[in-house]
Amino acid sequence: MDDGTIELGAPQTPSDGSSDASPQSEPPPPTDAAPAPAKDESAAETTQVIAKAVRYVKAKRGGDLAAIILAGSAARDAMTSHSDVDLLVLVLGSDNSHELVRILSRIVEIRYLGISEAEEQVNTSPRLPIILRKARVLYELEAAGSQLLQKAHARFRQGPPSSTIHEKIRLRATVLHWLGKAEDQQADPAIARHLLSIFLDEAMSAFYQLRGLWPASPVEHLRFISQRDQVMGDLLQQAFTATDLVDQLATARRIADHLFKDIPAPARID
Questions:
Q1: Closest by CA position to 263, among listed 177, 175, 172
Q2: Which terminus of the chain faces fewer neighbouring Cβ atoms within 10 Å, N or C?
């Protein structure tokens, strides 16, 4: 982890070579170095939170515990003041549950998965290989955690699961559903904008699926999409920055037309 060290300037020596230091040559007051201890304290707290969380999981699931894996920003040493600690716990037998606990000032999200279920999700989930890409094992028996991470890394290198034409048609219908709802609620701008935000999230998710790309982190969506499709990136930027609801909805319709230009509508049977 970053130790937050700040390099301070050295005291200045008088130009006449005298041994008397001027007031300006004194080191900065201790308050100038405050950011470093703050970062150190945050890193120390994160370490404590992780250690307490591991003890908690061991005490709760010691009998069927196979591995504890740290994921998310804590595994990447990128914690912020608002970050949670994410743990994936592998257990013997079958499980697929979640738990939230609070340790010191952090929320710890714990997901329990059976080993076989975790291995299946590595092969089929559009998210798990990304989550485990920079994860690290905190505890394991018989290399259960290390083996899962190896499989996740291999799956990530292969790219996300490809979508069938039927899945793409269903994806198109889902995204357009939210846009249609937003258009229907123009008389209530607050509701319309809420529905429009859902549409934009679904549209960005669809972009990754249709292009066969692993999703970027939320803060990187616009930059990542713009690098691969400038038109799509520009339209998203317009939708996020427009202040007039009519303009936002018109831009959203152009986003849908561009995104699904090669995807047919469902077949008519009437």
A1: 172
A2: C
